[in-house]
């Protein structure tokens, strides 16, 4: 009787079908070409973002320079009056 239960437990394992394919799930995301392309896109985005930030900073610097010149002219005018 013990052999009958053991054999019954093994039957499903004998008939289990495993499918295999040449591609593994997520294999595209792991490929070197995809990684290189993704890194290139990220680098391009970062470069573009940094250029935008630099342009904003340059604009702010120019505004501050103009503000400083206006304040210096105002100071010189006040010194002439005194």
TrEMBL record:
Single GO molecular-function term? ATPase inhibitor activity
- The domain of life is Eukaryota
**One term under GO cellular component:** mitochondrion
Q: Would I find Mitochondrion among this entry's keywords?
A: yes
Which controlled-vocabulary keywords does the entry list? Coiled coil, Mitochondrion
Q: Does the keyword Heme feature in the UniProt annotation?
A: no
Q: What is its main location?
A: mitochondrion
Mind telling me which InterPro entries this protein's record contains? ATPase_inhibitor_mt (IPR007648)
Please give the coiled-coil regions recorded for this protein. 47-81
Name where it's found: Mitochondrion
- Family indicated by similarity: Belongs to the ATPase inhibitor family.
Q: Its biological function?
A: Inhibits the enzyme activity of ATPase.
| Protein name as annotated | ATPase inhibitor, mitochondrial
């Amino acid at each position: 009787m013990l052999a009958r239960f053991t054999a019954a437990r093994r039957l499903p394992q004998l008939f289990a079908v495993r499918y295999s394919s040449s591609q593994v799930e997520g294999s595209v995301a792991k490929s070197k070409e995809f990684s290189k392309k993704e890194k290139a896109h990220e680098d391009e985005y970062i470069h573009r973002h940094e250029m935008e930030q630099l342009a904003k900073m340059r604009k702010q610097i120019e505004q501050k320079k103009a503000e400083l010149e206006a304040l210096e002219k105002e100071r010189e005018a006040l010194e002439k009056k005194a």
